[in-house]
Design brief:
The protein has about 300 residues and is mainly beta. The chain has helices at about 20-25, 60-65, 70, 105-110, 140-150, 215-220; strands spanning about 5-10, 10-20, 35-40, 40-45, 45, 50, 85-90, 95-100, 115-125, 130-135, 155-160, 165-170, 175, 180-190, 195, 235, 240-245, 250-255, 260-275, 275-280, 285-290, 295-305. It folds into two domains: about 5-235, Jelly Rolls (Sandwich); about 240-305, Jelly Rolls (Sandwich). The protein contains six helices and 22 strands.
Length: about 300
């Protein structure tokens, strides 16, 4: 029988990254400005490798091929597609102003899924803000003119955020994390991002990063911007459900023939199932196989519970 699986994080250096994951999650980071930690991924750009138990060293792709419905349950797809990608983002500086396409556009143009995502704010400085959508009066023509004139920031809605916020970012929404915000990100399994503004930054070679203005203009949702309501305990969208959970003793849970994901925000505890138990701790992302069925979670834990339904 399979067991709750933990994975080695895949770290990525970014111009806007930092070192905050060392203190916030107890991580041992490689050198450099670490902006992203891909904690659960089966994508052409990165692959998760099991860290615990008898299956240590196996990739997520190998597990999906070897265990199929045992691991994935109703989410099994013969193509080997894993529907979600879990990250931690450390915005030590502003991220580029960006937008992600929906499924229809992304499959047509990029040959992969679109990208709807959600954030849990793990840490935020006292005056932290994010870019979250456009000002209501901004039209496609006005936005195009602002891009051409180098005046994109005047079109954007900046909103304050704090630790513990849950933020839904549907495809088509212009957005950016700003300085001093660290988030867990739950998203569709996609790495397609269209940048529309990057503060005129240059990379280590002195080159400005590529912008994708025309593609962005084709996928941005103009009008009807998402409501600023971050004080919530869960987010449900067509691709996943994300819940904030806190326990001090023990609670029951069940897979219901679908895999589950736990992102352990703080504390230490144990996942007990009919064939054994696995200790989990701060900073780990845990994949709970569909075949586990009913199980119990115990200890002093704060975590995100992520499912596909």
């Amino acid at each position: 029988m399979l067991y709750p699986l933990t994975f080695k994080s895949v770290y990525k250096e970014r111009v806007w990254g930092g070192r905050n994951l060392e203190n916030l999650l107890g991580r041992k980071l490689p050198e450099g400005k670490i902006g992203e930690s891909w904690d659960l991924c089966n994508h052409k750009n990165s692959m998760s490798i099991v860290e615990n138990g008898d299956l240590a060293g196996k990739t997520l792709a190998e597990l999906m091929a070897d265990y199929k419905e045992t691991l994935m349950g109703q989410d099994y797809n013969a193509s080997g597609y894993f529907p979600l990608l879990i990250k931690v983002l450390d915005a030590n500086d502003q991220l580029s102003v960006q937008v992600h396409p929906d499924d229809e556009y992304a499959y047509k143009v990029e040959k992969e899924a679109g990208k709807t995502e959600a954030w849990y704010v793990l840490a935020a400085k006292a005056d932290a803000k994010i870019i979250y959508g456009l000002k209501e009066e901004i039209t496609k023509e006005a936005f195009r003119a602002a891009v051409k004139a180098g005046n994109v920031m005047a079109c954007l809605r900046e909103v304050p955020v704090k630790k513990g916020d849950l933020i839904y970012v549907p495809s088509g929404s212009v957005h950016a994390l700003l300085e001093g915000v660290v988030v867990y990100e739950v998203q569709q399994n996609s790495d397609t991002t269209y940048r529309v503004y990057d503060y005129n930054r240059v990379d280590q070679e002195g080159q400005t990063r590529e912008l994708h203005t025309e593609k962005a203009l084709e996928v941005i949702s103009f009008g009807g911007q998402a409501a600023v309501d971050f004080n919530q305990d869960s987010i449900t969208c067509p691709y996943f459900k994300m819940q904030k959970m806190r326990l001090e003793k023990e609670i029951p849970d069940a897979t219901q023939d679908r895999f589950l994901i736990y992102c352990i925000i703080s504390g230490q505890g144990k996942i007990s199932y009919r064939n054994g138990a696995v200790t989990v701790r701060q900073g780990e992302t845990v994949l709970i196989p569909a075949e586990l069925g009913e199980f119990k979670v115990s200890g002093g834990l704060e975590f995100l519970r992520i499912s596909t339904r």
